[in-house]
User: Fold this.
Amino acid sequence: MRLMWWNNPTYWSVQGPVWAEAVADKASDVGSWFTWGPESCSGIQGCDGTNVVVPGVGCAQGSWGSTGMNSGIQSALASFGTESYANYMVDAMANSWTANLGIDGYTEDCSANYPCMAQTPSGGLDAWAAIVRRVRKLQPQLVHSGEGYSSWAQMIEADANLGGQGFTSYHSAMQKAVFDGDASDLEDVASTSGADASSVVCYLHPAFDGKQPGGCPTMYFRDTSATIKNVKQHQLWVALEAGSGIVSQHDYDPESSCAGWAGCEFWSHGQPGAWWNVTNDPIDASVDESPLWAFSQHRALNRLALRTKLTITNVSAVPDASRAGAAPGAMPANYTVYDHANAYDGFGGHAIDGDGVTGVTVAQCAKRCDDDPKCDCVTYFEDDSSRQCWKRSQCVPAQFERDTAMQPYSVYVKKDGPKPPPTRDGGALAYLKHDALGPAGDAAILVYNPGVAQRVTIDLSALPATLLSGRVTPTELLQPGGAQGPPLAKAWTVEMAAGEARAFGGFSLASFAPRLGKKDACKADDGYSRVAAGTTLEACFLECLADTKCSNVHVPYVDIVWMEKPPPVTCTLLGLLQEPSASCSEGTGTLIKKLPKGRPRGAGM
Assistant:
């Protein structure tokens, strides 16, 4: 774990002795940090606030103030377009005193453009990027995130690592998959998030030529939905988002209140709840470590690992011992059953039945709901010694509680109410993840099963035959101790518990390293060349890996559009090529070398 210092320098208004010194002498070094104007403030545009009037001095560019926007202790916004203030910021962020506090690095949050900030040409992005580049040389752990970017060109210009904020539908789609028990239809939202595109940008864009094994930007999204309080469901939700390559930022809590601090109404956008001062994510106190840490520990699961949706060929139900000896009485025809689910206040239902009743059959439980016009569904519990029934109103299946502890529960919903969730592919989802840019080409298979317990069979025929011989047994990455999964096979079957995510790694698909310089018209030394059938980077790499004559892959540049699915690529598989400068012409494409045993230490490409 690293301790990172997060701050947003855009809002660095300066108070105290520094501000007093600036007011006393506007022409001083510190005074130059600010943009001053006449008493009337004419010609000075406010930025993130209003201009500050200093009697006898004039106006400095705007400030948020100490107690809220436009209020509190007098201060002003320093401009990072001034040379003196830029030097100060570089020294502050890269000075060794922060290391003495245990700070390993920095997360800077700065938006793409601040057109109102004075002394910064082109909206301030160039001035801020210059500071970032200087700090990186002194403090390699700098992580620069930003809000409001609208293109990869802006990300590249700002030298940013993370871009995003927003995309509410992304979080809600992932949450809905967890609640509905069906993640099979997430590809549209996952593929257009920008995460897949960031991997292609890293390989193909000339701005990243020579940055191996990465140093490329990707996406983060701030979440505006409610944190899922059920630990298992929360972990499945975050695992779905991390598996698609997104860095999630969950800092909004609709059950908290920001009342009492200035700016509450502005930042809440009229919604209940609070930003930033939120409760912790739910944890399981009985375990030493959350399985979600695996996404920061294993290279196959990292944000720039290539992602490919795998085809699920078969799903078969796992016998459910908890349903053996079920209560007599056929399921009512006018109800839809949601097995292993519970509905109550806060989880998709409103209690209207107090303690409910005991000793009734399923049919008798449903009859109680039929006789009550306020009842929309019933929760039914049964085990070897007890049968219980509760009536509920306002039933929303997408919000029912579902995890392994809900095995004895079922919810029966009137069919004139919410429709049952889809069951395509049994609701399961599988990804192949490949850290192709990394030192060893680590790979993993991610399997998500938000619904009932079932056996999931996945088509792995695209993997190299050497991995499918039955001798390669992957390791569980999301479980402590690294238990082994079933041996890899063309038709690979894994048993999944209800509401479970599993990751199977410990095998390699080789490193594919971009060679320096942009090239076209490459001719292999041995003359071998053929066009690959695949139209994604991962498909091309797998073809090359299976082809003993392939040592390199050439990919022409394609324009990668912000927040869109990467376009198809046309790859040429090439044989041995020792010296690109002699075997290729200068161009715009990327020549990529296959390294079956990973990157040799200290070697260039």
Observations:
- Residues 4-156 form one domain.
- DSSP finds 14 helices and 34 strands in the chain.
- Residues 227 and 281 are 7 Å apart (CA to CA).
- The chain has a mean pLDDT of 84.
